Structure formats: C-alpha cells, structure tokens
Amino acid sequence: MSNAPRTPVIQLRELAKTYQTGEVEVKAVCGVTLEIQRGEFVAVMGASGSGKSTLMNTLGCLDQRTSGDYLLDGVAVAGLNRKELAKLRNKKLGFVFQNFNLLARTSALENIELPLFYSQPLVTLRDRRERAVQALEKVGLGKRGDHFPSQLSGGQQQRVAIARALVSRPEVLLADEPTGNLDTRTSIEIMGLFQELNESGITVVMVTHELDIAAYCKRIVVMRDGQVTSDTRPDDRRSAREEIARLNQVEAKASLA
Amino acid sequence: MFTLFSILVARIWQTSLIALRALRRNKMRSLLTALGIIIGVASVVAMVAVGNGAQARITSQVSALGENLLTVFAGSKRSGGVSSGLGSASTITLADAEAIAREVTDVAAVSPEVSSTAQAIANGRNWSTTIAGESSAYLKIRDWKLAAGSMFTEREVRSAAKVAVIGSKPANELFGPLNPVGQSVRVKNIPFVIIGLLESKGAGMGGQNQDDKIIIPYTTAMKRITGDKFLRSVNVQIASTERMEVAQQQITSLLRQRHRLTAGHDDDFNIFNQKEIADTVNSISKIITLLLGSIASISLVVGGIGIMNIMLVSVTERTREIGIRIAVGAQPGDIRLQFLIEAVTLSLLGGLIGVLCGVGASQLVGMVADFKAVVSTGSIILAFGVSSVIGIFFGFYPAHKAAALNPIDALRYE
Q1: Which residues sit opposite B233 in a β-bridge?
Q2: In chain B, what residues touch A164 (CB-CB under 8 Å)?
Q3: CB-based contacts of B181: which residues, under 8 Å, 6+ apart?
C-alpha cells in the first residue's frame, strides 16, 4: 500500500448534505467530522431520519456532499464526476445491502464476478472466475457457486453479497443494515463473518439501528439530526463465535427438556 | 494503443454477452420486438427484389426486339380526326428504305417491312395470321433464332421466291407436332414452301403474340399479297448504341428531304427508337422500385419505435439491476453500451431474420409471377445497415436514460 499506514482510510471534515425537496430544504447531514482508520469495525447507529443512510451513501460515493471534505484513502471525493466516482467505488469500496441486491437469475459466482467485470485494468475471464471462487470460499459457501439467489436462504444470499463486496479487494466494506432482513441466529452468523473478515484486516463500516448488532463492532458512532452525538469504543464487545456457541447450548437444553 | 483497443474489444464482447443473455431470458418478447424490424426488412428486400425482377423482365422484352433497333413507321392515316395508327398511311416506299441503307452512316442492316393479315391453309387446316414481308436480314436484326430449317436468302428476296419462315403459333395450329419445314402453306391461294421454323419468342411488349406470324420475302409480299408499293415500316439496325441518336437524326432529315417536307410540315413518318423505349421503361421501373422500397422502409421506422418502446420498458424493469451495476463500479458508459448493444442486437437479429424472410418471399413471388425476383446484395447490405442504424438510433435514448439513473434511487426501486 502506497499510503502511510497512519493515514485514515476515511476522513470527514465538516461534511454536510442538504436535499432540496420542493421548497423545503432538508439538512440530512450537517457538519460531521470523523476519521476511520484501517482495520476498524465501525457501527453507525441512529433512528430513521438521523442522517445515517445519507452519510453512508456519501461514504459510498453514491452521492456527493453539499459542503465539507471527504477523503477516501487520501483521495478527495468532492468534485469527481460520475465516471471517476464509479472507478473509485469499484476499486476502493465493497457494498453490502439490507436486501442483498443480487442479480436475479444470475448464478452466485457470476454475481460475485460483477465488480471485476467493470475493473480497470481488465480482469481476464479466468482470473475473474478464480477470484470469485476464492471469495465464495471465504464466506463459507464454496459449493454453492452455481446456485441462483432464489435457491439460496437469506443468510446465504447475504454471504454471496459479502463475497461480491470482497472480490475487488476493497479498502472499506460498507454495509447498510446487513442483518435487517435476517433472523437472529443468521444475523449473528453474518456478524461473525464480518468479525472474521475484520480480524483478517478488512475495514468494515456498517449502518444499523439495532444495538444488539452494533455490539459486535469495535466502535459505535451514534447520529442524531444529522450530527454525531457519541463516538465510543465499548469494552464489552460481543463475539459472534461465543454467541453462537451459547445459542447452541440453549437449543440443546431446550430439545432435552 | 493496441492494449487500449483490445480492452475496448474485450469490453464490447463481454457486454454483448450480457445483452444476449438478457434477450434470451425474454425470448418471446425479444422475438415480438424484432418482428417490426423483421417485417420491415423482409418487405424492403422482397419489394426491391420484385421491382428489380420486373425491371429485368421488361428490359429483356425490350431488348428482345433486337439490338440497336430503329423502326421507321409510316405516318398515321387521319380521316376527320380519327387516327388509324402507325404504318397505316402510305408514305414510305422501298426507295426510301434503299436510301436509308445507302446514305445513313453506321447502318448495319435494313429490313423493309410490309404486313397484312391473311388466312394460311395447310395440312387440311387453316389459321388466320400475320403475313410479314421482310428482308433476309430480318432475323439478324430482331435477334431471332430458327428452331429448324433456314432463313430465305437475299437472292430469294430478289427473285421474289415463294418461300416462308413460319412462326411457332401457326406452325402448331396447322401442323401440330409435325415438322413444318419442307411442307407447303397456301396464302391467298399462293403456295409457299416452308423453309424455316422460328423459335418461340412469347408475348411482345404490347402483349401481342410475336410467334403468330409467317415471314416471307418483302418482294413476294408486295407483289403477291399486298399488291402495294408502300411499306408499313423499315427496321434499321445501327452498328452501335452510341450512334443511334445520330442515325435517327440522319434518317429524319433524309426522309423529310425525300418526301419534300418544308419547315412548316410535320414528319409523315415516326421513328421508334428501341434504346429510348428501354431507357424510359427502365426509369419508370426504377421509380416503382424506389416507391415500393420507401413504403416498405416506413415499417422499418415503425419497427425501430417498437424497439425503443421495449427498451424503455426494459430499463424501467431492470432499474435495480442498473443500480447494482453502478454501485459496484459500472461507469455510465458501461451501462449505455449494455443497453445500446441490446437494442442493436435486437434490430440486427430482426434484420437477419427479415432478410431470410424477404428472400423467401421473393422466391414465392417469383414462382407465382412469370418473372424471377432478383434479390440484390445491395438491398441486403442496405437492410442490415439500416437496421443497425435503427438499433443505435432508437436504442440511444433508453440507453442514455439507463446510464443517467441515480444509483441510490435505482437501488431502492421496487
């Protein structure tokens, strides 16, 4: 990596985003200053309307800020055009969505290959397939490459989506309510996967409104009315592995009873 | 430079695969969408083929009259405003024909012609047919071949021999399947020896049967059949196509001079220029072909609008897919290319099937009509070119719309 390891991967300075809906001006994000270092696992929390989704879209280079600075891996995002933003997303970011957003009627492996399809320099067909297979193995779905999203459970679909986000070896994994459509146990499993990936060095930023889920993260940023109200690193961080083990115990007891 | 090019090619290829897959998923819809183009291209190809076929047919009919032929008809007889048609007046004499042969440059052959309708009797049957008096050069001038026997000679013309060359129609009516050569036929009680049988030529320009005729030396005809010293017409063959106009002018001034026509008088003869007729017919049939082709091409435009319509539907349907692609790093150009290729694939597919259908339809028309439809390579290339242009033109707006989608809205689209 060319950048000094001390450079934060995400740097926000007085970031603001204002929407113009009709005559009303909505200040979705007003003056957020935040630094996220490499290897962090951040949860952005807040009620709906708190501006966390807008912040996420801005972090994801899907939307441009109204004022302030945003440096992604040292690159100023402000002023980039659609084409340059697309390149940046492709190279530096991986997205995980609440509703998975996989292409229907397209196999898991082909879904995972998608970002590589748009990479520059071009990735050859064989390399694409190879990297997609590796990513699929990383999320523990090695044998399901040929399955279509409709043939997979919600948890499995989200794993495919995570593999897709990983395949281009991004700087940051951005997850928007990744467990929002999953049951408790599957949610914990997905959080376990994020924890594993984070331990292997991947930076994860995720939006959630559930405290249970945020508890698996290393750092919790709480937003309210477009501003950061708290930024903490809880000591009692949950481990998904232990949580699953506990759940298994409880279930075993229940079935004995 | 090379790498840039190969990247471009690879990207277009990969994008084509995506586009093809999207079309395969909606087979029925793709087919129906392409149907507009199919019908358009097929009708253009078929119409132009039929037009060309008709043109070729007419041209061959015109050239069947003979090569580089000028026919000098005697003027029309007028009595009280009623015209009796060309050749009916008595204005052209044998001396005129001889003068043309002698004085006009570039004349290859001359055949004075007299004609009359008479009853031909032979083999116990009779048939009313045209008796044409011609010179020995007539068959050469008219580019007409003999099926059997031979044409009379110049010597036989000079001696007004009672010999005849019979057309296939009277031959068939009088002799049936028998070979008429060597047989005798009586016209106006004069026995003629049949020395040749003409090849069948079929219907002529006016629809009259060219085969229904018996040809005898013009000398014999003038002396014994018509009893007239005037000619119906003179067939003049000119040495080359380029010289026809000059020859026509020369004949005109020669005849005016011989007939002592002063500046105030109209010609008392008419010159029928085979090349002029051919040119006129050609230009008319070209206009008809163009007309048919342009009517058909309207359906191409309609087909293009159909493609645009379905592409717009497709963009709306696949809003989320577009959002996902943009989110993972597809550039606006990638999205535009994808939908453009889809549209062009649809229209080219339509073009391909359309050409096949058009060729099939042309063959069918060729079977029904009495001429061969001529499918030209030009019209196929044009149809393909036009259909890909239509794909790009009508695909551009939907593709642009797709590329301009806001990824955040697109990802939320249900």
Answers
A1: B73, B113
A2: 328
A3: B148, B149, B194, B195, B196, B197
Q: Which of A253-257, B359-363, B390-394 has the lowest mean pLDDT?
A: A253-257
φ and ψ at A165, to 5 degrees? -70, -30
Q: Where are chain B's structural domains?
A: 12-61+280-412, 92-267
Minimum-distance CB partner of B327 among A95, A120, A121 = A95
Give the largest CA-CA distance in chain B: 104
| A56 → chain B, closest CA residue | B408
Q: Are strands A93-96 and A172-176 parallel, antiparallel or unpaired?
A: parallel
pLDDT tens figures, B71-127? 888 876 555 556 555 555 678 888 888 898 888 888 888 899 998 888 999 888 889
Is A148 within 8 Å of chain B by CB?
Answer: no
DSSP state of A106: S
Token pair 């106006």 is found at B188
Instruction: Output DSSP code: residue B148.
Output: E
**Among chain B residues, CA nearest to A110:** B18
Listed in sequence order, the DSSP H helices in B104-164 are: 138-141, 154-158
Q: Report the candidate in A3, A170, A163, A175 with the shortest Cα–Cα distance to residue A91.
A: A170
What per-residue confidence (pLDDT) applies to A5? 56
Q: Looking at A15-29, B44-58, B208-222, which range is the least confident one?
A: B44-58
pLDDT single digits (tens) B115-165: 888 899 988 888 999 999 999 989 888 888 888 899 999 899 999 999 999
Averaged pLDDT, B258-268: 81
Q: Is B198 in a helix, a strand, or coil?
A: strand
Query: What residues in A contact B25, CB-CB < 8 Å?
Result: 105
CB A10 within 8 A of CB A205: yes
Degrees to nearest 5, angle at CA A13 with A10 and A16 = 105
Residue showing tokens 């708190």: A50
**Distance from C-alpha of A194 to C-alpha of A191, rounded to nearest angstrom:** 5
pTM more than 0.80: no
Strand partners, A232: A220
What is the distance, to the nearest Å, from the Cα of residue A139 to the centroid of all Cα atoms in its chain? 14
Structure tokens at B312: 């717009």
Output the CA angle B78-B83-B87, nearest 5 degrees: 85
A121·B321 Cβ contact <8 A: no
Q: What is the mean pLDDT of each run of 10 residues along chain A (257 residues)?
A: 68 92 87 94 92 92 91 91 93 94 92 91 86 93 92 94 94 94 92 94 93 94 94 91 90 83
CA distance A114 to chain B (A): 7
B245 phi, psi to nearest 5 deg? -65, -45
> Could you tell me if A68 and A76 are in contact, meaning their C-beta atoms sit under 8 angstroms apart?
no
Residue from the list B10, B25, B320 with its beta carbon closest to the beta carbon of A122: B10
Whether the bond between A121 and the residue before it is cis, its omega within 30 degrees of 0, is yes
Q: Looking at beta carbons, which residues of chain B come within 8 Å of A166?
A: none
Per-residue b or e along B173-184, where b marks 16 or more CB atoms closer than 10 Å to that residue's CB: bbbeeeebbebe
- The closest CB to that of B330, out of A60, A118, A122, belongs to A118
Q: Distance between CA atoms of A143 and A146, rounded to whole angstroms?
A: 8
Q: What superfamily in CATH does domain A38-62+79-256 come from?
A: P-loop containing nucleotide triphosphate hydrolases (3.40.50.300)
User: Mind giving me the DSSP string for A169-217?
Assistant: --SEEEEESTTTTS-HHHHHHHHHHHHHHHHTT-EEEEEES-HHHHTTS
Q: Is A179 on the interface with B (CB under 8 A)?
A: no
Query: What is the spatial distance between Cα B158 and Cα B356, in angstroms, rounded to a whole number?
Result: 60
- Residues on chain B touching A122 (C-beta within 8 angstroms): 7, 10-11
Polymer length of chain B: 414
AA letter at B234? V
